[in-house]
Amino acid sequence: MTKRVFTLPDDRPTRLVVLISGVGTNLQALYTATTNAAYGAEIVGVVSDRDTAEGLRWAQSRGIPTATVCLGDFPDRESWDVAFTAAVQSWEPDLIVSAGFLKILGPKFLAQWPSRVVNTHNSLLPSFVGIHGPRDALRAGVKLAGATLFIVDPGMDTGPILAQVAVPVHGDDDLETLTERIKVAERAQLVASVGRMVQHGWWIDEVRAGFESD
Q1: Pairing of the two strands 144-151 and 41-48
Q2: Backbone φ and ψ of 63, nearest 5°
Q3: Does position 214 have pLDDT exceeding 90, yes or no?
Q4: Quick one: which residues bind (6R)-10-formyltetrahydrofolate (predicted)?
Q5: Residue 1 has pLDDT above 70, yes or no
Q6: Residue 206 pLDDT greater than 90, yes or no
Q7: Residue numbers annotated as active site
Q8: Where are any strands of DSSP class E within the chain?
Q9: Pairing mode, if any, of strands 14-20 and 209-211?
Q10: 122 is annotated as contributing to ligand binding
Q11: Do residues 118 and 112 lie in contact, with contact meaning Cβ atoms separated by under 8 Å?
């Protein structure tokens, strides 16, 4: 298998763009990390597919530039993909973090930043793809749930896995309690993993991915 290695600039902070659809708790965790210069990154823009996303207002209150590109404003996904790509490109990102973003990214977008778009997902992939990971974990009766960070490819939650964190499912868990524990673990994993990508780089082969610091 051919191993490809990716690194980010070491003479300036890495330029991050974060994609959101909701409150933006992962965005907030990343922002807190970037306030420490040693983390080596800065959030240069936040983009949402929903103008009602609370995370946009939060970002604006911190002086972070934002943009909204709603799918419903375009005649088809292809034209939305073009506009969404242009909005993100305006900030010239080095790395893009999809953090609670609920749309499948288009081919033009992924071709613009191959293997430089990561997504955090609230299940232990490949189990429970889609937006209902904690619910599906409870329905399946599994003993371990968790979160996955992966390199985005054209499929739904199918890209090479960079990191995973397991969260035990307790006998008295309901959807609210399990979801909240997964969120806590997911945020910590996201911050740590993006930091490793920024500081050390990452690698990908046909089916796997990892950090150069491993």
Answers
A1: unpaired
A2: 80, 15
A3: no
A4: 77, 102-105, 119
A5: no
A6: no
A7: 121
A8: 4-6, 14-20, 41-48, 66-68, 95-99, 117-121, 144-151, 161-168, 202-204, 209-211
A9: unpaired
A10: no
A11: no
> What does DSSP assign to residue 14?
E
And the tokens for 201? 């780089």
In the block, which residue shows the tokens 């609920």? 102
Angle, vertex CA 57, rays to CA 86 and CA 186, nearest 5: 85
Which pair of structure tokens corresponds to residue 170?
């307790």
Helix (H, G, I), strand (E, B) or coil at 94: coil
For 118-155, write each residue's pLDDT tens digit: 999 999 999 999 999 999 999 999 999 999 999 999 99
Q: How many helices (DSSP H) and strands (DSSP E) are in the chain?
A: 6, 10
Flag whether 34 is marked binding. no
Q: What is the pLDDT of residue 207?
A: 87
Burial 171-200 (b: 16+ CB within 10 A, else e): eebeeeebbebbbebbbebbbebbbbbbbe
Q: Is 50 annotated as a binding residue?
A: no
Q: Is 119 annotated as ligand-binding? A: yes
Domains of the chain as residue ranges with CATH? 12-114 (3.40.50.170), 119-213 (3.40.50.170)
Nearest alpha-carbon partner for 193 in 47, 41, 37, 2: 41
Q: CB of 92 within 8 A of CB of 12?
A: no
As beta bridge partners, residue 99 has: 120
Question: Is the previous residue joined to 126 through a cis bond, with omega within 30 degrees of 0?
Answer: yes
